[in-house]
């Protein structure tokens, strides 16, 4: 069995990546499973390790705008403005790719998804490697995204070479993925940069492109981000749970009875705080041997949109 070795220095992670190894690295959103973008065999292993279909393209992580120009081309002025405002940070842009980016990275698409992460550890790895890394979230395909070291190890400990330690994933949900469609910016996946924040720069609220059978961003697949325990999304927590052992996930503290456990994500109902705890809380609930989890829908604003999106997809993995 492969043993995952724990690294503490970004330079060591860069060394391993340059040799074609896979390294789980913390980012400000979730842990990523990184490969050097120049190593096709390492990219291929990402798909193998995650059991991810090869039609699902990866995000390329760059240090800054200069690096972007090596990966993508024809960056429209509006995307330039968004980069200036939101990079480094949880905003991923889908742009026409440069030829040197391998087809496996982009699943054969003529476009590439790129972001500049904000997490100091990811940035230190990029600086030491001096090349972009391709990194999806460090989970098995369709399962809960990892925001803690133990989440990564729980799913991938016997499948990956290295894990790099770093500060916690502060944002807690994946990056927002955007693309141009008929001259307008559209959101392919709601995430860490809110639609309101984008609207403030764009002057209009970008539309969210809904999921389809053959998705543009397979983060749009109707099932995804799922715990093993059946999960239902509700508008309000029922006073009494269904028969059996039930847990609940709610935004802020509330009175309850009959539930095995109720996890609230923020004392004050703060959505940023909630996002940072979201996957960790689902992970804990998933380990409790419950018959089911009831999750109360978040307010449909700010990061609540991304959180509701993740809940909805998690619920679809377990049709009622
Ligand atoms: O926050 C994040 O984005 C994390 C960290 C590690 O950076 N990464 C992440 O990667 O969530 P992943 O692979 O789990 O999700 C990437 C999303 C998928 O929904 C994928 O379909 C979409 O980006 N994507 C990638 N390339 C695309 C492209 N060329 N066109 C449309 N969507 C694309
Ligand atoms: Mg993912």
Tell me about this structure:
With 320 residues, this protein is α/β, with parallel strands linked by helices. It is built from ten helices and 15 strands. The chain has an eleven-stranded mixed sheet with strand order 1-8-2-3-7-4-6-5-9-10-11, sandwiched between helices. A hairpin with a 2-residue loop joins strand 9 and strand 10. Helix 1 crosses helix 6. The longest helix has 16 residues. It is globular and about 55 Å long. The mean pLDDT is 94. The structure holds threonylcarbamoyladenylate and magnesium ion. Threonylcarbamoyladenylate binds next to strand 5, strand 6 and strand 10.
Which term fits the overall shape?
globular
DSSP strand count: 15
Q: What percentage of amino acids are in beta strands?
A: 15-25%
Give the helices and strands as they follow along the chain: EHEEHEHHEHEHEHEEEHEEEEHEH
Largest sheet: 11 strands, mixed
What are the distinct ligands in this entry?
A: threonylcarbamoyladenylate, magnesium ion
Topology:
Layout: E1 5-7, H1 10-18, E2 23-25, E3 32-36, H2 40-50, E4 59-61, H3 65-71, H4 77-86, E5 91-96, H5 103-106, E6 111-115, H6 120-129, E7 133-134, H7 149-156, E8 162-164, E9 176-181, E10 184-189, H8 195-202, E11 207-208, E12 231-234, E13 246-250, E14 261-264, H9 271-286, E15 292-296, H10 304-316
Parallel strand pairs: 1-8, 2-8, 4-6, 5-9, 10-11, 12-15, 13-14, 13-15
Antiparallel strand pairs: 2-3, 3-7, 4-7, 5-6, 9-10
The structure holds threonylcarbamoyladenylate (TXA) and magnesium ion.
């Amino acid at each position: 069995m492969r043993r995952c070795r724990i690294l503490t220095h970004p330079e060591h992670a860069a060394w391993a990546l340059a040799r074609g190894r896979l390294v789980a690295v913390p980012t400000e959103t979730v842990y990523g499973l990184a490969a050097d973008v120049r190593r096709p065999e390492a990219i291929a292993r990402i798909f193998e390790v995650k059991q991810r279909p090869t039609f699902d393209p990866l995000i390329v992580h760059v240090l800054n705008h200069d690096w972007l120009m090596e990966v993508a081309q024809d960056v429209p002025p509006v995307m330039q403005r968004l980069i200036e405002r939101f990079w480094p940070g949880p905003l991923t842009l889908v742009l026409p790719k440069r030829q040197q980016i391998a087809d496996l990275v982009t699943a054969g698409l003529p476009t590439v998804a790129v972001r500049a992460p904000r997490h100091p550890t990811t940035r230190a790895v990029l600086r030491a490697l001096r090349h972009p890394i391709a990194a999806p979230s460090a989970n098995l395909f369709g399962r809960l995204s990892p925001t803690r070291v133990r989440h990564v190890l729980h799913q991938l400990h016997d499948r990956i070479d290295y894990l790099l330690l770093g500060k916690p994933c502060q944002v807690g949900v994946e990056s927002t993925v955007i693309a141009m469609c008929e001259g307008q910016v559209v959101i392919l996946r709601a995430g860490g940069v809110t639609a309101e924040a984008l609207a403030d720069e764009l002057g209009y609220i970008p539309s969210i492109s809904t999921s389809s059978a053959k998705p543009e961003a397979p983060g749009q697949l109707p099932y995804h981000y799922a715990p093993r325990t059946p999960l239902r999304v509700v508008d309000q927590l029922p006073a009494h749970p269904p028969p059996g052992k039930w847990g609940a996930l709610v935004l802020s503290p509330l009175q309850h009875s009959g539930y095995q456990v109720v996890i609230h994500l923020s004392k004050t109902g703060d959505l940023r705080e909630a996002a940072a705890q979201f996957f960790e809380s689902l992970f804990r609930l998933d380990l409790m041997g419950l018959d089911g989890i009831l999750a109360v829908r978040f307010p449909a604003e700010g990061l609540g949109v991304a959180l509701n999106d993740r809940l909805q997809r998690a619920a679809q993995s377990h049709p009622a």
